Amino acid sequence: MDDLIIVGCIADNPYVEDMLQHMNQQVDYSDLISLKNFLNSEFCPRFIVDESNFDKIGRQLEGKKVLIVSNSMGLYTRNDLAMRNFLIARAAKDNGADRVILLEPDLYYSAQDRGPRPEHGVPGFKRDIADFKKFDGQPFSARLYADLLLKSGIDEVVTVHNHSCSVMNMFMDRFSGYFHNLQPAEVYAGYMQDSDIVSNGEIILCAPDKGAIPFAREVQRAFRNKDTPLLIIDKERRGEREVSVRLSPESSVTLDDITGKDVVVIDDMVRTGKTILECCKFLKKAKPGKVVFFVTHFYSSQEGRINLNDPAIDEIVTTNTIPQILNRDMQGRLRHKMVVLLLERWISSYIFNMLGIPTELSGPLYRENMSSKNPRWKGKMGPLFS
């Protein structure tokens, strides 16, 4: 791996440090790149070079691949981090890097995956006038972000569980197929089967809306028991925050079938938690054994923490694609029923294979992080994680 350089876009990022460990980079990225700001606040990254070597000016990175790891951390806004991505990528290319790869587990601007006109996005459904009006006056930000990444020198993008087919189509087009949308189906299936979060053999998976069905089916296929049933919920929005839910005719089981069994609701992201709460309340009426919510991207907000603290949801499993959720203050009262799966090992393995370096993982694809307030905590994480 001498030809790969891994850097972060902000200093002292534990997520990047974990990536370095799993990808066997012995040198800390702070010794490879200087992330400095001028007095006028402009960001100016600089790959650290041999000051005495005047033979390879502007060519110090020839023969190298540069992996930029970017995720939401601390006081930096996504706008700040996006601009840092552009400039680090440009610095890599302007100094001879052969290939620049961006790892952004929660891809920025993905929620703005269409614009106010018919040519603005391919969302996978027929847009009506209300959907066009929703974006009236706004930029088609996801496309702009893809264009700016490409122009800055990014050759390849890796992200995790992006559910937007409009983003997928656009990034695949812009990056000529070099867009990798990693689906954590095997991680989730493995955790359900190998931990004590649910009762093995009694699991029923649940897609809380039509958009969640494809990923829920991926998790279903990843189970050792291929007959794990899938319950599907239809939702109907009755306003900006109000939804109604009912059992979908596409569901392979009825509400009566879930009585006494553990139900796992699976989705890609949560912000306010209102829709998921309505879904879980609906399921609880059938008296299941336990209702667990698995979600990849957890945006911690006060409203979300209040909604998800409802007893209709027995436990929450998320990932560290947005690393702030590891902070117990960000979890708030949810800490007693929250588990965070750390994905760096799983992502590192994928990137190794992507770069043509075969690797086989033994043991779990994740590391488990939970508060000692969680009843399932057995002290196995040690004091660092309690």
What does this structure look like?
It is a single chain. Helices cover 28% and strands 22% of the residues. It is an alpha/beta fold and 386 residues long. It has two domains: 4-182, Rossmann fold, CATH 3.40.50; 185-342 and 360-385, 3-Layer(aba) Sandwich (Rossmann fold), CATH 3.40.50.2020. The strands form three sheets. An eight-stranded mixed beta sheet has the order 10-9-8-11-12-13-14-15, sandwiched between helices. Helix 1 crosses helix 11 (344-354) and helix 2 packs parallel to helix 4 (141-152). The protein is globular, with a radius of gyration of 22 Å.
Topology, please?
Elements lengths: L3 E5 L5 H9 L10 E5 L5 E5 L17 E5 L8 H17 L4 E5 L25 H6 L6 H12 L3 E5 L4 H10 L4 E4 L2 H10 L8 E5 L5 H10 L7 E8 L5 E5 L14 E9 L3 H11 L5 E9 L3 H7 L6 E5 L8 H4 L6 E5 L1 H11 L12 E4 L16
Parallel strand pairs: 1-4, 4-5, 5-6, 6-7, 8-9, 8-11, 11-12, 12-13, 13-14
Antiparallel strand pairs: 2-3, 9-10, 14-15
Helix pairs in contact: 1-11, 2-4, 4-5, 6-7
